[in-house]
């Protein structure tokens, strides 16, 4: 059973920073792409940033220049450094990973989410 566990959310004032972490655990053959999504109240879940196994990154326009995604393949972790946070960044942030299981089955794994609240 593959599990993703996020941490690092919390309350921060506008202009502040937070660093989210996501740890993947369980028996798996390989982790391919990893990413962070967010869902604000009343809105659909949206991609914030993604990173391939080789380190190529993609950012939503709202995240460019403020957020940085990184990963540690050895530790099966992905991070999201968020700077210059604004109230509109308030959302539940979810970790996502494309997993290749030991039976060579593709699995789309999600964490339980971590709440980020940015006060004005």
**In terms of structural class, how would the helical and strand content be classed?**
mainly beta
Give the overall form: elongated
| Strand fraction | over 45%
Rg over C-alpha atoms, rounded to the nearest angstrom: 14 Å
Mean pLDDT across all amino acids: 96
Fraction of residues in helix: under 10%
Major pleated sheet:
7 strands, mixed
Uncertain spans: none
H/I helix tally: 0
Number of strands: 11
The first-to-last residue Cα distance is 40 Å
Order of helices and strands: EEEEEEEEEEE
Structure description:
By secondary structure, the chain is an all-beta fold. It is built from no helices and eleven strands. The protein is 0% helix and 57% strand. Strand 4 (30-39) and strand 5 (46-51) form a beta hairpin. The mean pLDDT is 96.
Please describe the topology of this protein.
Layout: E1 3-7, E2 10-13, E3 18-25, E4 30-39, E5 46-51, E6 57-59, E7 67-72, E8 77-82, E9 91-100, E10 106-110, E11 114-119
Parallel strand pairs: 2-11
Antiparallel strand pairs: 1-3, 3-8, 4-5, 4-9, 5-6, 7-8, 9-10, 9-11
